[in-house]
Amino acid sequence: MAKEAFKRVSYKNRDILITLQFIIPSIAIMSIFILFPIIRAIIMAFQEWVLTMPSPTHPFIGLDNFREAFGLTHFPIMTVNTLVYTFCNVAGRMALGLGVALLLNQRFLGRSFVRGLMLIPWAMPTVVVTNVFRISLDPNYGLLNALVSKLPFVHGPIQFFASGPLALGTIICISIWKNFPFVSLMLLAALQSVAKDYYDAASIDGASGFIQFKKITWPLIKPIWNILAVLQILWTVKEFELIYLITQGGPNNGTNIIGIDIYLNAFRFYKVGVACAEGVLLLLFCLLFTSIYFKSIQKRENL
Amino acid sequence: MMITKVKRLISKSVLYFMVIIVSLAITAPFVIMLSYSFRSSHDIFSLEIGLIPKNPTLSAYYNALFNYKFSGYGFIQWSMNSIVTCGIATFFAIFFAAMSGYAISRFKFTGKWILWFLIAFTQTIPWVIILVPYYITVSRLGLVNSLWTLGATYLAVFLPTSAWLFVGYFDTIPYEIEEAAKIDGCSTWQIFLRIILPLSITSISAIALVAFVTGWSDYLFASVFLKEARLWTLPLGLTSFRGEYMIQWAEIMAMSAIVTVPIVVLFIYLQRYLVDMMAGGVKQ
Description:
The complex is a heterodimer.
Chain A (H helix, E strand, L loop, with lengths): L1 H43 L19 H8 L3 H30 L6 H7 L1 H5 L2 H11 L6 H7 L14 H28 L4 H9 L4 H29 L3 H4 L13 H10 L4 H25 L7
Chain B lengths: L1 H36 L21 H9 L1 E2 L2 E2 H32 L5 H11 L4 H14 L6 H24 L5 H8 L4 H12 L1 H16 L3 H6 L8 H5 L10 H21 L1 H13 L1
Antiparallel strand pairs in B: 1-2
Helix pairs in contact in B: 1-12, 2-12, 3-6, 3-9, 4-6, 6-9, 6-13, 7-8, 9-13
């Protein structure tokens, strides 16, 4: 009796030991490199942190960093830019992503080839994308700019990155180009799991293509579409490289969004406290959408 | 009869027209990059040459590989830095991620939701927030300007996404194989190392590719940690012309092509696994 109980306990202990072996490396790495820095950033947002001032103690200063962030002259335009950038970008990606997914779900010659092409924007490093667009949109010798200049109602080469709104719009288009194929491919995977029988039945009943989409396709892929939209919002609002490598947030903060501003405040102006305060604001925004994301994904059963 | 035929012909032509437009739009920047890379530095600024260069030359590729230097260092050094740093980080990230992904998919243990939450949460947080306090700690320890620091950072960046994808993948493997192995007396580690990992080799390569490419194209972390041209990774090399008066665009485009083409080929080669993997990850 006692021996059996001992056996059971030791089995259990061994299970725990093996489980720990499997998960400890990940937990350690994520705690040191991710969890700890986030907590530290939140604390730093309430401390005095200016790297150009020699202050070894970093006293707590309440909400002063937040006040300074809100007081920045470019804070309003940066907030508007961030929201416009995120909203237009995600709307474009999701609409174009759905349209192209439906297109690629049709039968035509060379379908798998075109599906392969969809991986190109996804695979191209952001640095390369920014270089290509910088040269091809150059007013003096850019191939794309020359092409656009030939369109009706366009007078001469366009200075794409000279004014704020046009630069922001151009970067949004580039970002949509780079990211919509991912959305398309994910939606296409969902579309292909929709059973053909539904459509056959609908065709016999005489339902048109649009009715079929509205009544069959959309309800079935809507959950995935929603999850993708939330993920895209989370991945877009923190955009840094694409904008920084084209305009560095300029001209006149016209393309400055919060990710850029955090980077510039911390690593160019050394106002680390303000950067962390902005980081906390961004984190709050992300947490809001993360909770929506967690609600919309399937609950894992074996937790 | 005739009318339905005409109707079908019209809808087919509309379909093909749209497919062609979409394909052109998707590939345009890639094609433009190649177009510029096959020009001589003399022809690069000439608009008359058009998309297909009149006198195609490989001189830009030669120059990009051997002559393009920044503070004495060039493509070969930067690609070595990139390959070694991203390669080592990917190897460890994939191994640890597979372990924790397997644990989440198969084991029962208390506090599992914490690990799962941590992994899922990391998919959504902005790295730039982490970077600020992390950089301050690293610079206090005197570890800035080191590929080891960058590699360790990449390990942490790759790990959660890979684990997230591994959980989705392991959930699709049937239990029966492991049960049979268990009856044969295999330990958990033996099952994992000898059966599960070899079985998953294509999926592992797809996840590893995603991780590797994350580092291969990273500019944010590299720009903060690497100050000397000797230590630069490829993305930093590709932006080294910033602030220079004369930009050697042909060389930059050739370098971009060398950096991009292998990744595109691998993505297309592994596309089925990549797409299934990401779709599984997004859904869970």
